[in-house]
Write a structure and sequence with these properties.
Layout: H1 7-22, E1 24-26, E2 48-50, E3 77-79, E4 100-102, E5 123-125, E6 146-148, E7 169-171, E8 192-194, H2 207-210, E9 216-218, H3 226-230, H4 235-251, E10 265-266
Parallel strand pairs: 1-2, 2-3, 3-4, 4-5, 5-6, 6-7, 7-8, 8-9, 9-10
Length: 267
């Protein structure tokens, strides 16, 4: 009589084989409370890791289970939204192939300085957390295209953000931000700046003049007046870009969401 393999063992083996073959580890809504150790057995095979909507408290590291995150050195997409993570490990910086990281809807209070080592990162979304500040090392993310830090407790953005030279979209809605660093004027590729529901009462004077491709600014729910905005140098050129984008949206018959068509500026 042949050896009997349990259904659960066979299922696990099949799952790991599928992960290794596709490079995609998808464990959404799996009721996980801890990082799945078997992922480390895949080593360099992992390209995408999606652990959305679980109950994970600790991400990859634990006091009693030392883990070498560098085994996942080829991972490009890390999606850990809607969990209970409070802290990120310092060895996160070893994931230097990462291009996308989504950490929305956790309980993260700070980002490690080692975040700046993720030099290939293009999209970072960490909305809906408890961040009070961003590390200065974020300025090392020279390939970053999108930064979403909305729905946190940020009082300011670091001066170093002006070194994220590739940044095209910055979302920082629903924070406690009062002032913007002057360095934001260095973001010559910036197209969209969203700062709804903050405490911003003025923006850097050269923003519209220096950010020559900026076409959308949203400042709803801030103590800044339209008059202040219109008197800034470069406003007329910004307004022309805004209208061109708006007209293009209409001509293309784009689908309009519940908030209506984005006109590019909201004060």
């Amino acid at each position: 009589m042949g050896c009997c393999v349990s259904k659960s063992t066979d299922s696990k083996a099949s799952r790991i084989a599928r992960w290794r073959s596709t490079g995609i580890v998808a464990l959404r809504d799996s009721k996980l409370k801890a990082f799945p150790n078997e992922v480390f057995d895949l080593d360099r095979s992992v390209r995408t890791l999606d652990l959305t909507h679980n109950k994970i408290v600790q991400f990859i590291f634990a006091v009693d289970i030392p883990m070498d995150i560098s085994k996942l050195i080829n991972m490009q997409r890390l999606i850990l939204a809607e969990n209970l993570v409070q802290q990120l490990p310092t060895n996160l910086g070893k994931l230097q192939s990462l291009k996308l990281m989504t950490l929305d809807g956790n309980q993260i209070t700070s980002l490690p300085d080692e975040m700046g080592q993720l030099v290939r990162l293009e999209r970072l979304s960490i909305s809906g957390n408890l961040l009070t500040c961003l590390p200065e090392t974020i300025g090392s993310l020279r390939n970053l295209l999108l930064l979403n830090v909305s729905n946190n407790k940020l009082k300011s953005l670091p001066e170093s953000i002006g070194s994220c030279f590739s940044l095209e979209e910055l979302q920082a809605n629903d924070n406690l931000i009062e002032d913007l660093p002057a360095s934001i004027c260095n973001l010559i590729h910036l197209k969209s700046l969203c700062l709804d529901n903050n405490n911003v009462n003025q923006i850097p004077l050269n923003l519209l003049k220096d950010c020559k491709v900026l076409q959308n600014i949203s400042l709803h729910g801030n103590p800044i007046s339209m008059d202040q905005f219109q008197q800034m140098e470069g406003f007329q050129d910004f307004e022309a870009r805004r209208k061109k984008k708006f007209d293009k949206q209409i001509d293309s018959n784009v689908m309009i969401g519940s908030k209506g068509l984005d006109e590019g500026v909201d004060l």
